[in-house]
Amino acid sequence: MASVNILSTKGLTKTYGGIDANMDVDFELQRGKVTALIGPNGAGKSTFVGMICGRISATRGEVFFEDQNISSMPAHKRIQLGIAYTFQITSVYAGLTLLENTAISARRRLGKDNVAVNAKALEVLERVGLADRAHQIAGDLSYGHQRVLEIALGLAQDPVLFILDEPTQGLAETEIDDFVDLINALSGDTTILLIEHNMDVVMRTADQITVLEFGKTLASGTPSEIHNNQAVQAAYLGTAVDA
Amino acid sequence: MTKNSLYSHCLHFGTIALLVALFFLLPAYHVGNLSRIMVLAVYAMGFNLLFGYTGLLSLGHALFFATGMYGLGMAMNTFGLPSELALIVGVVCAILVSTAIGLLALRTTGVAFMIVTLMFAQAGYLTVLYFGSYTRGDEGFVIQQAERIFAGVDITGETSRYFAALILFSIVFLLIAYLVRSPFGRTLVAIRENEERTKMLGYDTVRHKLLAVIISGSISGLAGAAYALLFGYVGATFATVQYSIFPLLWVLLGGAGTTLGPLIGVVFMFYLIDLSSELTQAYMLIAGVVLVLLTLFAPQGLAGEIRRKVFKWLP
Ligand SMILES: Nc1ncnc2c1ncn2[C@@H]1O[C@H](COP(=O)(O)OP(=O)(O)O)[C@@H](O)[C@H]1O
Ligand SMILES: [Mg+2]
Prior knowledge:
The complex is a heterodimer.
Chain A: E1 5-16, E2 19-30, E3 34-38, H1 45-53, E4 60-65, E5 68-69, H2 75-80, E6 83-86, H3 98-110, H4 114-127, H5 143-155, E7 161-165, H6 173-186, E8 191-195, H7 199-205, E9 208-213, E10 216-221, H8 223-227, H9 230-236
Parallel strand pairs in A: 3-8, 3-9, 6-7, 7-8
Antiparallel strand pairs in A: 1-2, 1-4, 4-5, 9-10
Helix pairs in contact in A: 3-4, 3-5
Chain B: H1 3-25, H2 28-53, H3 62-77, H4 83-105, H5 110-130, H6 132-135, E1 141-142, E2 149-150, E3 153-154, H7 158-181, H8 183-193, H9 195-199, H10 205-231, E4 233-234, H11 241-254, H12 261-279, H13 283-297, H14 301-309
Antiparallel strand pairs in B: 1-4, 2-3
Helix pairs in contact in B: 1-7, 2-7, 2-10, 2-11, 2-12, 3-4, 3-10, 4-10, 8-10, 11-12, 11-14, 12-13
Magnesium ion binds next to helix 1 of chain A.
């Protein structure tokens, strides 16, 4: 039987020069759930997920995915295991069309089968509401649409674990609603790790919340547990979790 | 087959058919030029795979061209091998050298990559001079006419040389056209457009870039070997910086990242120098001014501008 946790970290640490961006983070991610990673700016959230997917090399500590130690695996191998990652700072193929963008993403798994690649590439654009712009150049899109395309690049991989770094940053209200619907539709099949500033989005999507502060986990639990957590309330002075 | 791939098949086979026709239509002088142009276009196509499609600017491709050239030349002259075997020796040497250069130079990126490849090519050039007693240094050496027989055909005549060059050109042209539409080629373009994103989509970008250097270097080496065999001369000039810069100019002029760009660029540059040298001693000045104008008004090269303005499907 597959274990409850799809991913875990043990003592994960990242030191930049003298700064401890992450300090001995032990973390467990439940299969099929939506887990939100929250915390103030500079808490080390991006660094943490960067070390999970291999984009950032850990100073020390271990990452386990499906009970396999992937700590020394290069990023592309980890992605091949079914981990998709979207960047906090939008990183799409600005010089290519939207369809080519999602096709590159789909092609890694589907390979030579052009028909399947195209179908998948179009399907994910439809899913995020960009299909009518399939032949536009990505760099010509608005900032919000580029963020959405970034999410589509993740979807096109049919990931087992989908990691999103502040996906709703810069999105309009209606786009945020669509995003919430998308995440809720994905959960169950796909495990989601979501870094999110917007507490409304967190409350509408998350099954689990982990709070990171100064590179350490401050608390982990269900939304209501986090809401009632003394330490979290003290840290946020009751402002951020009012939602 | 989609409409675009039908168009691109027509374009590629049409180009080859045109080159066949030109042999019968053009006067001997231009036929001779075109033989040379087609071999140089092979060199340009090799360079284009790395620069135009993968986004890696090497300033040391003369090393690969010269490796193929000396590999074949010395195999024939020093070791007395027949031309067919010598061609294989030339290409194998280019594969080995480009693998080594790839492994070393790809540790760097951007400007550092340009400088490292430039330095390696310079080291290659100095090596040719240093071993002057074998390579005949600057002076170079001639491959005797009697030995320039390939697969039973004497390739020193104008006709056989033209068609030998055309066959070589066609093979590489179609290979590149196939390659850049394949998943491998698409991944190279993805690396060119955004390497970090491509890695984080699960592609082994390091392996892809290494393969691109090896294929690019080997095609350049093949061009060098063919050049030596068809024109009968091997010399250190072909290892100089100038011969690293030429393919860059050709590809920029013709259109980087297009299948037809390299050929167009070589034709254009060849005749630009040819015609302006008829007019004046300062022909490089005219050539320079035209190059500047083209970069200003057709920054994507000739084929690139055609793709942008008219034929969006151009491969
Ligand atoms: N490449 C880097 N070099 C040096 N310091 C960095 C680098 N990336 C992040 N940091 C620092 O590490 C800390 C955590 O950053 P980050 O993980 O981006 O936080 P968050 O995503 O929670 O806002 C911050 O203090 C940040 O300044
Ligand atoms: Mg961040």
